[in-house]
Amino acid sequence: MIRYLTKPVNLLLAVYTYLRSSVTGNPEVAAMPLSIGVELTNNCNLTCPECITGSGRMNREHGFMDISLYRRLLDEIQPYLLNVNLYFQGEPLLHPDLLSFVSASRQIVSVISTNGHYLSEEKSHGIVNSGLRKIIISLDGSDQETYSAYRRNGEINKVIEGIKNVADAKKALRSSMKIEIQVLVNKLNEHQVPAIKKLAASAGASLRLKSMQVMDERNAGKWMPSKNRLRRYSLSDEGYKTRNSMPDRCARMWFNPVITWDGKVIPCCFDKNAEHIMGDLYTDSFRDIWDGPKYRIFRKSVLTNRGLINICRTCTSGLKGVAT
User: In what side-by-side order are the strands of the sheet with 206-210?
Assistant: First the structure.
């Protein structure tokens, strides 16, 4: 009976200590994270211009996570987790042992996000049958010209075929796995959202519109769509800036860490280059890192002056009225 109370008790403790820390300014942690992001690989087949991986601006080594590392991590924190996102930078379907990661996560709500180029009939059947709870497939246009303006080196027909393969596998296996089509809305593709919505409906998928992040805010004007709720940036006399009031708090520091492919624990999904490494799972336990001195100092800096932290300046936490 006590085992079934672990997750709800951990949830309550996590929320309580986050709220208390936000009020007092003292970073208390009395719970394990509710969710983790796991980078299976930071390799990718596309060269998207505003992606740190695709643009070639990633300055850390590339590689693939070892399944034994992931299993050790789960042994330690799985009882507390509500869900795991099996993606960060890179294309997770490039990992040759992908299905082993999903299978190891069967006791948790697991999610994968993909650019959709490797969803063959065989791979789609394996994914649907693996226990994955949700797959997110990016589709940033309804024709090749528009799609490849951002998804450079991408082939829209492959993605559409992949969506169909997943939908067919889901139907054949009578799976409850959710399919989500995600559109990174920009000024070039916003007029095609209705067509993408129809495609999603025909595949039995939900549709999510996401605002676009740029690596350099000076490039924001090139991509910003017309609808305000889809604009992550606003134009001022000083140029484009993230539309965020930057409150001195962030739930991600209490709820959602990320693990890079080589075992580094970083604060959140906005630390794409792993500039703020809290610890290494090859040398320390996750618990020791989670409540360790580096994390305490970083949480304190978030509660004191979050605006001074480089990765926080593009963050969507605290950003209201925008599709994030």
Answer: 206-210, 178-184, 134-138, 109-114, 83-85, 35-38, 258-259, 264-266, 279-280
Q: Say which DSSP state 213 is in.
A: P
Please measure the distance between the N-terminal and C-terminal CA atoms of the chain and give it in whole angstroms.
38
With the CA atoms of 185, 188, 193 and 199 taken in that order, what torsion angle do they form, in degrees rounded to the nearest 10? -110
Residue 149 has which token pair? 């303006």
**Which of 233, 197, 223, 195 is closest to 314 using CA atoms?**
233
Cα–chain center distance at 195: 25
- Cα–Cα distance measured from residue 86 to residue 65, given in angstroms and rounded to the nearest whole number: 11
Measured CA distances, 232 to 181, 224, 284, 310 (Å): 20, 8, 37, 17
Q: Which residues of the chain have pLDDT under 50?
A: 1
102: closest CA among 110, 113, 92?
110
Distance CA 169, CA 15 (A): 38
pLDDT in tens, 225-236: 988 888 888 877
Q: How far apart are CA 18 and CA 14, in angstroms?
A: 6
